[in-house]
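Duplicate of earlier report; tRNA-uridine aminocarboxypropyltransferase input re-posted below.
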Amino acid sequence: MEDIDLELSQLADLAQIEIGRREKRPLCNRCRRPVGVCWCHGLSGCRVETECRVVVLQHPHEEKRCLRTAPILQAALPPNAYIEVKSKRFSFSRFPQLEEILTSPHSVLMYPGEHAISLDDLPPVGPHQPPYNIIIIDGTWQQAKSMYHNCHHLHALPQVCLSGRYVSKYIIRTQPTEDALSTVETAAIAMATLEQDWSIYTTLLHPLQLLCQYQIKHGAVPHQSKEQMIASGRCRKPMGKRTYKKLRKCGAKQSEVTSLSTLISSLHMKDNQEGADYLVDSCGDEKEKRGAEDNRGQSAVDGVDGCGSGSGEIERAGSEDSRDQSIVNSVDLKEKNKSETSERDSSEKNGERRCQDMDKSYQEIDKLPGFG
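Output:
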């Protein structure tokens, strides 16, 4: 009992010890970042005047990231020019404010799909063109793809992609390709191009540059894209089939530094057959596809007509010989069984005949005098 009381008293003493917890740093009321690394002064205390409206469809997990760029748009744009909706699926019953936006003929979706048109091909805002609703999906590439497929209302919107001549300044996060841009960069380029006012781009990119400078000053390292790391041979991790398809689908550039052959040579394949199938399926090399089809067709011709190298004829002949041999073996087995059965029947008949002869002999002997 005394031991229990002693242990309880020791636990009570431990509970009184103050843990040296670090107090949270004061946050900025505008950007919600610590005051020491606040980028609000990069906006010079003014908001960007724009005619277009930016609509950000944000994945719920993106809100947990401390280095996201959507807050820059929220702080820089007027309240009527910025709308942010957080969800994985965007139905009109849950978000009625999106119905007017997603059904408007002046809404465009910044999404590099197969049928996307270039941003430079859109008519700029003017007397004959009303302002646009620029819709941006905020999340990782896989999350953005999932959100797009889960929202059928987005499929009817015209898809718009950037020209590829812009390089991301968001250097503290790894991008899949050199021309993959962050949310604030995509919105800044879209508004500056459609409104023909590149001061919008300069104003919105200044806070992003300050954010990257603060992170590098406190120990962050500038990141390069996966495309550049693979081309330079600094990517230690083997790139799988899915990653390669993503790089090609999101527009990996084929320049002098990173070409298709360089990317292919850096892949770590398990065996040659997997690599060959992968090149045919992923790279879309029509020549290899046609060559494979021609080889299959030639093999079929060789096997049927006996033309070409003759390997098909040999295989066919071998298979026919094997089939004939099996038939012969089966016939021989049947004949053997038949002969054994006939021999057994004949032996039984012979035995019966001998028995009958012996019975007749005994009867003849019984008729002799002195017997019976």
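DSSP finds twelve helices and six strands in the chain.

Merging into the original ticket.
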